[in-house]
Design goal:
The complex is a heterotrimer of chains A (406), B (309) and C (314).
Chain A lengths: L1 H20 L11 E7 L3 H18 L2 E7 L1 H13 L6 E5 L14 H6 L9 H6 L1 E2 L2 E2 L2 E4 L4 E5 H6 L11 H13 L3 E3 L5 H12 L15 H16 L11 H7 L3 E6 L4 H7 L4 E4 L9 E3 L2 E5 L6 H11 L2 H9 L11 H8 L4 H10 L1 E3 L6 H16 L5 H10 L4
Parallel strand pairs in A: 1-2, 1-3, 8-9, 11-13
Antiparallel strand pairs in A: 3-12, 4-5, 6-12, 7-9, 7-10
Helix pairs in contact in A: 2-12, 8-9, 9-17, 13-14, 16-17
Chain B lengths: L1 H11 L21 H33 L21 H9 L2 H32 L5 H11 L8 H11 L5 H5 L6 H11 L4 H9 L4 H12 L1 H17 L2 H6 L3 H4 L2 H12 L3 H21 L1 H11 L5
Chain C lengths: L3 H14 L13 H30 L1 E2 L7 E2 L3 H8 L1 H31 L7 H13 L2 H12 L4 H9 L11 H16 L1 H12 L3 H9 L4 H28 L4 H6 L11 H11 L3 H25 L8
Antiparallel strand pairs in C: 1-2
Helix pairs in contact in C: 2-14, 3-14, 4-8, 4-9, 4-11, 5-9, 9-11, 13-14
The chains are: A alpha/beta (406), B mainly alpha (309), C mainly alpha (314).
Chain lengths: 406, 309, 314
């Protein structure tokens, strides 16, 4: 009796699951139904991107199913999927990682020409960031310079004047001393590639990927930058580095550290989590303010059997209307010039436009490199040691560079 | 080497282990001075309770954190109870990722895998013990030898195989490759060797063939052994992490609990109260199983030599 | 309910003889039935264990990208591994983990098993309690410990508020990260061995212990002189299984440290995972897996040879 019951229950389970899964999502793509691979950072994030998918449904009659993964897993999963014959048609790529995926992504130039897309309406920096060797691999949806977020309440508490666009490293360190006196830390350290590299670029111009996209990991200036950060940690101005990618957001949102670096794309989510007054400012500069800019866009996998439909979908996903909406939500700083005002109007933060103008003036694109993903992984393991003062910046960069292809 | 494995396993099965489940009163009577030993045993008991408390504190901390408001997850000094008990953390964790789906997937994979494992094991265990056939011992030694192969060595070829079958991102890939462990055959064989010969003879006198004897006489007897196998198989499937991590890309459709939890951690790493709520959810099924089936489980470990896993 | 364990104990001896004459195998004429009964399992095992282990060797001799066709390269992958300083570090890390973890696991499990003697009240409850982390998902366990170890986590906050000193940043400090992982692994992993030892200790005959007591042996002496030799087969087996699984450690460092800081906690299986699924080099990954296999085989063989010195079969 028991056995029959168990068998019955198992059968019911099988039926229920087959009924509600209907096989692999990516396996069942069709002209009217495509899968879109996207990194998702929270519930609000999911909902916001769902509205973009809904837009495609109503405009093009194509069902777009979002397949989300956290950013840290996204690239590994995407790689395996693109190689395993279960590729989603629509793939979100970050400008600095586009070069990693040229072998599996479809160049879009022909499709853009044949469907008459007005590419010149995109922000030229954003569009150029999606090109590798002159071929376009994605339609950009966002772009923007890396900026520094700060906690206005903490600055006030410590009696430090609020930072202004273009503030210097000296101002930054002075604020660190004042905050330390008030029992707080100035900076939430991150070893994630974009944030770490932007912080050091602004400090002394050191960079590990040169303008032409080639690796220069053993860069002496970058090593100095790491040592500078180590000094901040030692002074007690900055939090210790951690392999946990969310440690910096965590320290900032909890009010433990007064500043951290992120892109404009995080404005809304950070604002919703923060229980204090949020401000944004340029990254403190050693000499002239400068920062990296990066962006993301939607591409099409080579394996996709329905490239025309997929192209139709990504065109809809990057229309001025959709991007304005994303801008209004603070989800993305739009990659279309005409939609950018929506972001400013709704940021709800005083002085954000000036900060942005200043940051953008000094911003340079962060070019991609085939090893950029490996580099990011190595940073998360090794840069920690430099910043926490266990090794010098030069030693660490030496070890990283020995593990990357020459 | 494998015959020695059998020896060592056989040797460890000598002890009559029924005393495991019932408290054995021995030892109470061989104490020279009663009062001295009582004091000592009370102290020992108190220390044991403290050790157990320290041991369990991470789990207590987990449950406590899962009920705190977000802003109070890190406090100095650490607190057990926040300013409010937030049961909402659980519903938030649930609504954030399809944890219901993960639970269902995990159950589905574990139940189906376990059933396959039980079915093939009881058949082969029977064949290895009570049926004689050519090559039996060679095949059995081969079975035992596969137990020495670390599963991680199989990851890459299994992945390539799944790619070939078109099984990447599928329930089959989660279930099938690990449903044929030699351990099940070994357990069942050991059991069938203990069944008295007279039962077969009686069945034969009644005119029952091999199949009928197996289903009507042997299978019902093997139930307790199968229960043990089922529990182990279930737990192994339920907790499996590395293989699903490799073979499942579409986590929201095929994800099991460990994978879902890892994904949740990746996305919500800064919201520790929610992460802890999700961890509590992920632990409930097997902890419940442990409490309900502790006797089977403990006996299974003891009789099968499943140590060190 | 059938009293299984006792019955199994009785059966253990015949199983040794089964290689020659098996009195239980009565259905001598039914040769085909035996094959039929065993074949579903045998086919499954062949397909998903034996074929893969052979395939793994073949893959390791090829340059086998995840996408595209493989090319035969002989032992290049192996020589590449042996020349790779990171691979050496990874082997050392894994060995360090094993050296720390296995003895600790055995000591803790043996200690608790001896402590939880039958005269302890509610020993069943204690056993279940100590067993909980063993049956819960290792990912969940690791996540909890991440929160305990990190700055401002449970240990750090407790130390700050009691003795006013910050705890080390366990997971980001080269000197602590591996120890932190070992501690967490022992916490979650000793349950099985504890139960096995506990059962083995229960089975030591009362008469022998009483005889020893009459001879004036204390608890310590009677443990080493009587109990230990009698349960040595259990210890041997548990030690071997623990060793094999310890070499395959993955989830704990993967969740707690991602292999860092530096590569101080990158283990062999994580190396295999990275090579195979992050860098897409299935050939190199397979070669590393074979190195793991060979290490495990070698150590198992050494253990079997060494067991005669201390393992006592009746």
């Amino acid at each position: 009796m028991k056995r029959q019951l168990m068998a019955g229950a198992a059968m019911a389970g099988v039926l229920a699951l087959t009924a509600c899964s209907g096989g692999s999502a990516t396996g069942s793509q069709s002209e009217e139904s495509l899968v879109w691979s996207m990194w998702i950072a929270g519930k609000e994030d999911q909902a916001a991107w769902q509205t973009v998918a809904d837009e495609v449904k109503s405009a093009d009659k194509i069902d777009v199913t979002i397949q989300g993964a956290p950013f840290t897993d996204y690239w590994t999963k995407l790689r395996t999927q693109l190689s395993a014959g279960t590729a989603p048609c629509i793939v979100t790529v970050q400008s600095l990682r586009a070069a990693n995926f040229t072998d599996v992504l479809l160049p879009l130039d022909d499709l853009a020409k044949s469907s008459g897309t007005a590419l010149d309406e995109f922000d030229s920096t954003a569009l150029d960031a999606m090109k590798v060797d002159g071929d376009l691999y994605a339609l950009p949806y966002d772009t923007g310079p890396l900026i520094m977020y700060y906690n206005k309440d903490l600055f006030k508490e410590a009696g430090v004047p609020e930072p202004k666009a273009g503030w210097s490293v000296d101002d930054f360190e002075a604020a660190g001393a004042a905050l330390k006196a008030a029992g707080k830390q100035l900076y939430a350290t991150s070893v994630e590639d974009l944030y770490l590299e932007s912080m050091i670029l602004s400090y002394n111009g050191g960079r590990v990927i040169s303008e032409d996209g080639s690796l220069d990991v053993a860069n002496a200036k970058f090593a100095d930058g790491l040592d500078w950060l180590a000094g901040l940690v030692e002074e007690g101005y900055a939090t210790q580095a951690s392999a946990d990618g969310s440690a910096d957001d965590n320290a900032f949102v909890n009010g433990q550290a007064a500043t951290f670096i992120d892109g404009p794309w995080s404005l809304l989510s950070t604002k919703s989590k923060a229980t204090f007054d949020l401000g944004v400012v340029t990254i403190p500069a050693g000499s002239t303010p400068t920062t990296f800019s990066a962006g993301s866009g939607f591409g099409i996998s080579k394996e996709c059997k329905y490239p025309e439909q997929a192209y139709q979908a990504i065109t809809t996903m990057t229309t001025e209307e959709v991007l304005s909406k994303l801008g209004t939500e603070g989800r993305a700083f739009p990659a279309r010039t005409a939609a950018q005002s929506a972001w400013f109007d709704n940021a709800g933060i005083e002085g954000v436009e000036d900060t942005f103008a200043a940051a953008q003036d000094g911003s340079v694109p962060l070019p991609g490199n085939k090893s950029s993903d490996q580099l990011a992984q190595l940073f998360s393991q090794y840069a920690i040691q430099a910043i926490n003062g266990q090794q010098t910046g030069a030693e660490v960069l030496d070890q990283i560079s020995s593990q990357l292809p020459k | 080497m494998s015959s020695q494995t059998i020896n060592s396993r056989a040797a460890r099965q000598h002890p009559p282990t029924s005393s495991l489940v019932t408290v054995n009163p021995r030892g109470l009577k061989r104490r020279p001075s009663k009062s001295g030993s009582r004091v000592r045993s009370v102290i020992s008991y108190v220390v044991l309770c403290l050790v157990a408390l320290a041991f369990i504190s991470p789990l207590v901390y987990m449950v406590a954190t899962s009920l705190k408001p977000a802003a109070e997850t890190f406090t100095t000094p650490p607190t057990l109870v926040g300013s409010a008990i937030r049961w909402e953390n659980y519903s938030e964790a649930f609504s954030y990722l399809p944890f219901g789906r993960f639970l269902l997937n995990g159950l589905f994979v574990a139940v189906i895998g376990t059933m396959i494992n039980m079915a093939v094991s009881v058949l082969s265990g029977y064949a290895f013990s009570r049926l004689r056939w050519k090559g039996r011992n060679v095949v059995f030694v081969l079975f035992l030898a596969t137990m020495m192969i670390p599963q991680d060595v199989l990851l890459i070829p299994l992945y390539v195989m799944m790619q070939g079958f078109g099984w990447v991102d599928s329930f089959q890939a989660l279930i099938i490759p690990f449903a044929f462990t030699a351990l099940g055959a070994f357990l069942c064989r050991q059991f069938f060797l203990t069944v008295p010969q007279e039962l077969d003879d009686a069945a034969r006198v009644d005119g029952a063939g091999v199949v009928k004897t197996f289903f009507h006489v042997m299978l019902p007897l093997a139930r307790p052994t199968l229960a043990v196998l089922a529990v182990f198989s279930f737990i192994a499937y339920w907790n499996s992490f590395l293989w699903p991590l490799i073979i499942i890309n579409d986590v929201n459709t095929y994800g099991t609990i460990p994978l879902g939890l890892q994904q949740f951690f990746g996305q919500q790493g800064s919201q520790w109260n929610l992460v802890m709520a999700a961890s509590v959810i992920s632990m409930l099924p097997t902890v419940l199983m442990l409490i309900l089936l502790q006797k089977h489980l403990i006996r299974g470990i003891v009789t099968s030599g499943l140590g060190g896993r | 309910m059938v009293t299984l364990p006792a019955a199994q104990a009785r059966a253990a001896r015949p199983s040794k003889r089964s290689a020659r004459v098996d009195p239980n195998a009565v259905h001598a004429r039914r040769s085909w039935w035996g094959l039929g009964f065993a074949s579903p399992h045998a086919i499954g095992l062949a397909l998903f264990t034996i074929v893969p282990i052979v395939a793994s060797l073949v893959i390791s001799l090829n340059n086998w990208p995840m996408l595209g066709s493989p090319t035969f390269v002989g032992f290049d992958n192996y020589s590449q591994l042996l020349a790779d300083p990171i691979f050496r570090t990874v082997i050392l890390n894994t060995t360090l983990f094993v050296i720390l973890y296995v003895p600790l696991n055995l000591i803790v499990s043996m200690g608790l098993a001896a402590w939880l003697s039958p005269k302890i009240k509610h020993r069943q409850i204690f056993r279940v309690l100590f067993f909980i982390p063993t049956v819960t998902p290792i990912v969940a366990n690791a996540v909890i410990w991440r929160m305990i170890y990190q700055p401002d986590g449970l240990i750090d906050a407790t130390m700050q508020s009691t003795i006013g000193v910050s705890a080390p940043n366990f997971l980001a400090d080269e000197n602590w990260a591996m120890l932190a992982i070992v501690a967490m692994s022992v916490w979650q992993g000793f349950g099985y061995n504890m139960l096995i030892f506990s059962a083995a200790l229960d089975s030591v005959p009362e008469s022998q212990l009483e005889a020893a007591e009459l001879d004036g042996a204390g608890a310590w002496t009677s443990f080493w002189k009587i109990k230990f030799p009698m349960i040595s087969p259990s210890i041997f087996f548990a030690a071997m299984m623990t060793l094999i699984t310890a070499f395959q450690v993955f989830a704990q460092p993967f969740i707690l440290t991602k292999g860092g800081p530096g590569s101080s906690t990158t283990t062999l299986v994580q190396f295999i995972y990275n090579q195979g699924f992050v860098f897409q080099q299935l050939g190199v990954a397979s070669a590393a897996a074979w190195v793991l296999f060979i290490i495990i085989l070698a150590i198992t063989a050494v253990q079997f040879l060494g067991q005669k010195k201390w393992v006592h079969y009746e």
